[in-house]
Amino acid sequence: MPAFAHRLTRRGLLAAAASCAVLAPGPSRAGAAPARIVSLDYGLAETLLALGVPPIAIAEADQWATWVVEPAMPPGVVNLGAAQEANLELLHALKPELILTTPYLARLGPVLARIARTESFAIYTPEPGTPYPRSVDATRRLGGMIGRESQAQALIHASVARMAAARAALASHSGTPVFVVSFMDTRHVRVYGAKSLFDDVMTLCGLSNAWRGEVNYWGFATVGIEQLARAPEARLIYVEPIAADVRAALARSPLWNSLGFVRAGRVHAMPPALMFGMLPSAMRFAGLLEQTLAGTPAHG
Predict the structure, then answer these.
(1) What domains, with CATH codes, occur in the chain?
(2) 112 near 99, Cβ under 8 Å?
(3) Do the Cβ atoms of 94 and 73 come closer than 8 Å?
(4) pLDDT tens digits, 49-76
């Protein structure tokens, strides 16, 4: 689950149910595409922005600039707090016409449905499939739902073009094994493997994911950095943010400095890209891969 996501508690769920016991769904306009849309997921929110329909409220708006960065969230979008414990009184007062959610928040579904029409989109689930093609399908579905079919198709085409451009720019790195990680502390990383959006994009860009180990259905595993020694020939990209004290401690760490890619200078910092996003995040990550690796030697 996202680093910024909090665990859904029984107490929070019961409080949500109690607060909505007397709430009725918000108004909707017969035959009109919903305009007042709330998203409890960053990936769906970034897709709304890309389709030209900013949400009126999102979960965890205060963390958007840290994890998503672009597209920028316009001012005035209401912060509903953590998705699992969203401010339901505020949500009801906003009179949304449509609430977007995911299976991760399935237990809130009946509560949300008392406020407004609620639609769930499955991008990260245990079922077979990976995030990029699921995001393509979800973009089409969302575009049809809000009357933005042509914009949805344009976004899909733009994502295909972005992948192709990055693949061409990285042609000399074709097949290069790359670890993509987020640092948890000085000894542990979250490494992104199969079933992650990052893995899908790396494949589309012609790179090889150096992590072949087990992952959860979000597409990552939390491992000790010593496990990265299994591919000393790889490059390693770490995605910001990284705590300043972790960065400083790594510079002094004998374990870190013993790793093959560290000794060879094949470690790269990358600006933030949402690891649990949809097509806009996939496009941002592809662009950042290009910026990070295009100027580096193909080998060594």
Answers:
(1) 10-121 (3.40.50.1980), 168-293 (3.40.50.1980)
(2) yes
(3) no
(4) 999 999 999 999 999 999 999 999 999 9
